[in-house]
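Per-record layout

source: Grifola frondosa
name: Putative feruloyl esterase A
length: 218
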Amino acid sequence: MYDPQSQTVVVAHQGTDPKELLSILNDAEFAQADANTTLFPQAGSDVQLHDGFQDTQGRTADIVMSTVQSALSSTGFKRVLVTGHSLGAAIASLDAAMLRMALPSDVEVDSVVFGLPRVGNQPWADLMDKLLPNFTHVTNQDDPVPNVPPQFLSFQHPQGEAHITAVDSSSGDATMVDCPGQENQKCSDGNSLVDTSIPNHLGPYFANVSFGDAQCPQ
């Protein structure tokens, strides 16, 4: 889809559906694999990605690429925004990197995602920082998802975290803190492993933005 007001082509990915076994398996599998250099030609031999996330992204990579290219051509826009939540955030981050590598330099590629799990290793995080310096991943209070897969399995977040510490239930206003660096103990990386909140993963994040089946009209 695209937003004529901001002249932006938008790519959005849904989050994990607990009713879908495949999504659950993708999230539970922590194995790493070499980056697909057909989709990520700038990835070095040391770049490793979550096998399930990469496989899921690869299933739709061609259609995402062709649809974005077609939309840019038909609209004349020069900006792409990639977003998603949970598993969708992981896929969105991979799509954003793929698009940045493939699209002309005069096309701006941005990505803002919510509840992002760790997607790859340190070289991948470094590559993301280089490709997408304005990449933003929003984390919400005690959401456990940004802390999986764990760092001791050689997973690493890129920079760009914006961490919500509180949300006013009446106004929807969020208190947010900046999180310099790739992993910041003052933000989600410092969350307790025992005091977690799945509801925080669904939201609200800010401005009463929430995710999950309950937010969708039947």
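summary: Helices lie at 21-28, 51-75, 87-102, 122-131, 198-202. The first strand starts at residue 2 and ends at 3.
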